[in-house]
Amino acid sequence: MAKDKDKPSAESALIRELADLLNETGLSEIEMEREGLRLRVARQITVAAAAPAIHAAHGAHAAPAAPVALKPADAASHPGTVKSPMVGTAYRAAEPGAAAFVDVGTRVAQGQTLLIIEAMKTMNHIPAPRAGTVTQVFIDNGQPVEFGEPLVVIE
């Protein structure tokens, strides 16, 4: 008996359900195991809608220009501000004791990791929405962040 091609399999229905859950919760990935079937559904988080995620090496450090210091409240309207896409704990480095992904004066490429936000025990890399120079960093390592909170400014 031939399998009906119009009906989705139980696995594809489960994958669609998990993908919908990712969108609803803002998570970047979900992994589960049930009855010997192990599934991992992941999506790429981008900060700007038109910015494709491009994996690039860390930018070279440049001498910082004398930027005008913005307060986080003022930075919300700055066009180069990268805001938190989720609630979580922000980490400026990949692990304790490691160098920060970016500092003031760092030249970044579009898609380069700026920091990591841990949400629900998932590490979400936050990419640069565009190339430029980091002129301000508003967060400290291990600091809790809210959705929409300014993280860094790229000019």
Q: Could you name the key traits of this structure?
A:
155 residues; 10 strands; alpha+beta; 4-stranded antiparallel sheet
How many E-type strands?
A: 10
Instruction: Provide the CATH topology of the largest domain.
Output: OB fold (Dihydrolipoamide Acetyltransferase, E2P)
Shape annotation? elongated
> Could you give a short account of the major beta sheet?
4 strands, antiparallel
- Strand line-up across the major sheet: 3-10-8-5
Distance from first to last alpha carbon: 62 Å
Structural class: alpha+beta
Give the second-level CATH assignment, the architecture of the largest domain. Answer: Beta Barrel
Number of helices, where a helix is a run of at least 4 consecutive DSSP H or I residues: 2
Element-level helix/strand string: HEEHEEEEEEEE
Overall mean pLDDT score? 76
What's the number of domains?
2
- Strand content is 25-35%
CATH class of the largest domain: Mainly Beta
Poorly predicted regions are 46-68
CATH superfamily placement of the largest domain: RNA polymerase II/Efflux pump adaptor protein, barrel-sandwich hybrid domain
Radius of gyration: 19 Å
Helix content: 10-25%
